[in-house]
Amino acid sequence: MDPDSTQQPIATPVVRTADRLQPFGTTVFAKISRKALAAQAINLGQGFPDFEGPDFVKEAAAKAIFDHPNQYAPLGGLPVLTKAIADRWREDAKTPIDHATQVTVTAGCTEAIAATILGLINPGEKVIIFEPFYDSYLACLALAGAELIAVSLHRSPGGDFAFDPDELAHAAAQPGVRAILLNTPHNPTGKVFSRDELHTIATLCCDNDLIAITDEVYDRLVYRDPFNPQAKHVRLATYNGMADRTVTLNSLGKTFSLTGWKIGWAIACPELTAGVRAAHQFLTFAVATPLQHAAAVALGVDDSYYGQLADTFRAQRDLLADALESLGFAFARPAGGYFILADHTAVSHRLGLADDMAMCDYLIDHVGVATIPPSVFYTRPELGRSLLRFAFCKTEATLHAAIERLGRMKK
Q: Structure pTM?
């Protein structure tokens, strides 16, 4: 046989995910949502509303598509939106900022987190994060080659979460620490950090020359009521010495129930903003131009909108909380955000289930309700195995249907 005609075997290419991302796999939210869909379970897992945002904002987006150029927006964002963000900041924080040099519009808060970490944290530097945490924090640190120092929010017998000041001080004093990443109101615990806690964090940042990255996407969803009489969202950037060392992150999605729009922003002094934009320009450069016009309209809404929104979510929280308490779940009613983080020990013991993963699977497969197992939000998963996260950002009809299914566990 002519050797030239012999077909040589072709090696199969070795294709694999980059080492820095291999530990993360598919997010727990995608996995649970897929399982919920297959089982036709009511999804109280992933934190997105099952209702639409306000018509006036959607109408503004539709109008912008036809009335404005649909081309790239400037790197920092459309001036009409950056000005609206700066105006809102001035009203809330009582300090003026320059919209052109201190505001950067991003593809949701998730991109704002990534751009901030990639733009300001060097490989090998350390970032303090409170656990449990939003899962993208770890992935962003991995992309940046940064290291995590986890400080736990410890659960009290009453269900409240708090950090140990000595543990945080020890973490902040370690060599190579560059930043603290703070989420308040907090996902998934529903904790709103107090003035004293924020003062402690601000003092440590100033004493140890750290920057602060604050994720404040639930800032308008604070429930000051008999369950949480002192709850109030306060911006860390307003504390003495923090204006020039804080990057404040936020988004439109949670406040206006438009999570699919992915409109977020970062606010910081010009020097920190330069770092954020250095990364942002190579991640997305700009986000949807018509939606930026609509976001500016949204941020001009009367403050009564936010009060009504918080009242609605508080009622939904209490509807679900009453049902969960009657079933034996233990928790403190959250002071903010979308979620109830509940101890399932009494319920799982009755059912003979070992941990949050088993409880989550049982609820999907046998009850028809999807939740999130929060052990994935800890560096030490054992700290979250007695807990489950329930989302209450749903219509009353959805919550009543879920409660009816959950009630079957009593039988």
A: 0.95
